Amino acid sequence: MRRMSRRALLRMTAGGVAAGYLGRAGEVVWAAAARTDPYATARINWRQLAGERIHILVTPVHYFTKFRAVTSEFTRLTGIEVTFEVIPPREMREKAVLDLGARTANYASHTADPMFLPLYAANNWVEPLDLFLDDAKLTDRAWFALEDIVPLWRRANTVRGRLWGMPVEGEVTIHIYRKDVYDRLGLRPPETLDELRETARRSHAPAQNLFGLALRGFRGAGQNMYIWPSLFRAYGGQWFDHAGRPTVNSEAGVRSLEYYVSVLREFAPKGVENWNWPEIMEAFAAGTVVQYVDANSTASVIENPAKSKVAGQIGYQRWPKGPANKRVTSIWNWAMPINAALPSRKKQATWLYIQWLASRPTQLSSATFKETPDAVVRTGVNRMSIWQDPEYRKVIAFTRDYADVVLTSLREDTDADWRPRIPEWPEIGEAMAIAIQEALVGRKTPKQALDDANAELSRILRR
Amino acid sequence: MTRRTQSSADARQAPPGVLAAPAPGALRAVPRRRPSHDEARFGLLLAGPSLLVLGLVSTLPLAFLVAVTFFRIEVTRPWATGFAGLTNYATMLTDPRFWHSLRVTAVYTVTSVALQVVLGLAFALALAGEMRGRHVLRTAVLLPMVLAPVVVGLVWRTLLLTPRYGLLDYLATVLGVGSHSWLGDPTLALGAVIVLHTWQWTPFAFLVFTASLAALPVEPFEAAMLDRATAWQRFRYITLPLMRPAIVTVVIIRTIVALRAFDAIYAATGGGPGTATEILNLYAYRVAFNGLNLGYGATLTVTLLLVTAAMTVLFGRLRGAVESPA
């Protein structure tokens, strides 16, 4: 202390006073500095493409609102300007496919459905990301730590051994139930699908406006065909045989669809055949559904007392096991590819953005970013290290074990072939979605529906 | 008048075999002073830019669409792209889902247009006379037409038809019909989308009929009153025949619109449950943009276009038949 020069002392005092005066503004500056700092350790020149502009197509969900909000930091860091177009998922998919197919290069990247990556890759519509990952000028691999990104999601986005889309956000499906109802009835969280049916039966009380179970029933590759594949695989179903012929009408297929149809017919609210996840989540939040299996991201809404009557009374666990003795969750992530029709500098600029967005510091800072005062936290960060980070786990501690349930599901509960990853997926997903719904509404028996679907799949693949 | 000149011009250019039996239109055509060369050129000059734009944005894409139907273009199988001749049409004829969607389209169109005409006429007659609050009622009747079809589809799906919560479902329960999954049961769902379409577009029929009623001559009615004709007789033998042109117009316009309906069904049921409400338009969309089979999707679209065009010609004839005897 005695060694400190007068000037240093003055500087310190002045700094302290200034900080005091600046108050909140000072905090913001400090926070911003702390956020930009971690990028300085990456051994690449972030400003090598300053002045470029890229346009990105995204869906209107809270995590992309956060991503969009923090993107100004990226522009400050790199000098690359990023603009967004925001439209709902289904329309976004169509726009993206048309842009890629026509090679109009309107969108540098978009929030792709991983199921579409085999199609993109087959057409060479997007660039393999390995090209950019291996370019030392563009990527500091040690800093970026690709291996830290949820392995399952990377596997889902890998076609012919190459990564075609970078996971920036994702989810798993888990079993979500009313703890208070379970406690009241003395039920234990089900270990198997049969036990799940049993808990639905025992808690089903339509006279009191309480229904035993709900699952997505609406027709669509991303609706009923997002839930049934978990059952299909948990019953041991295989999409194709060794010769590549579809086998969805196998015994495992029929039994899994029978299960789906019977539990929903018996225990779900009327109209479930038109329910997608928002309807299920709303009904659960209103206290009329005992349990459902769907995305872990719904937790941030049903645990919000302003939006949910049942906040604080909820339990979470992994999917119950099927007869094949496995639990199968979804593999969903929003994958960001690089449009192959772009000029090379724009491709590189897009890569810098994707690298920045998928990096640990951005993933962490955006997870808790409050774009509005009542904003929810992100529950789909892409890095294993963040899932294990005590700070992050504190933010998503809806229950003591919520983070562990999600983390274990991410690690253990699925295989990349949860849904058939082939270029024909768009048609196949649609055909399957129709079959599942036709069985659910009783137009066909599960066996009939799957026989017809299998014939349709053969036709699609043979053509 | 322009149309007649046009058809006589066509007849002139037609091969001699056709000229031997000239079309009725050509017979009616009155010889006219042919426009001078200068005038014609000036006219062309004036119409040129808009014809060019029209050609670029409508005719060219249409020709392209028709051309695409002869090709195999599957985005999911880029390597298989190539000329396919009539394969797409052959596929269509053996595609059960196409025939199913055609049937759904027929039921949807016929039923909803019939309902619109009957209800539109009933409302127009009911609100034609002097009565208190007529203007408010008229405005209320017109309201559904102002809404975007997508909004209508969503509102019906959520606020009105949701079992246990929807307003209409509640009414059904109160009336003893019971709560149903209106959009979940295949038969009910088709009925529901027909009712939805009727609800939204009856106001159009109402509007045309109201205007047409107001323009009817008073004399026949006065004469009928003197002859002590009953209200039913006046309606059956005076109002209805006088309204025929208006009715035919409404039927034509509404049929064309119903055939190319899309948004409301898309929002309400997405074509489901299963394919119960999948009209041809929706199926074509699914094939082209979900299944990414552009060649076949174009084939379905062109077929729908042919159906619509055939209906238009048919109704046009019908309308001619209605107008000429008068």
Strand order of the largest sheet of chain A: 2-1-3
CATH class of the domain at 104-291 in chain B: Mainly Alpha
First-residue to last-residue Cα separation of chain A: 83 Å
| Low confidence ranges of chain A | 12-31
What does this structure look like?
The complex is a heterodimer of chains A (463) and B (326). Chain A has 463 residues and is mainly alpha-helical. In chain A, 48% of the residues lie in helices and 10% in strands. Chain A has 21 helices and twelve strands. Chain A has a three-stranded parallel beta sheet. A three-stranded antiparallel beta sheet of chain A has the order 9-8-10. A two-stranded antiparallel sheet of chain A has the order 4-12. In chain A, helix 3 links the parallel strand 1 and strand 2. In chain A, helix 1 crosses helix 2, helix 3 packs across helix 16 and helix 20 packs antiparallel against helix 21. The relative contact order of chain A is 0.16. About 4% of the residues of chain A have low confidence. With 326 residues, chain B is an all-alpha fold. Chain B has a domain of 188 residues: MetI-like (MetI-like fold), CATH 1.10.3720.10. Chain B is 73% helix and 1% strand. Chain B contains 15 helices and two strands. Chain B has a two-stranded antiparallel ribbon.
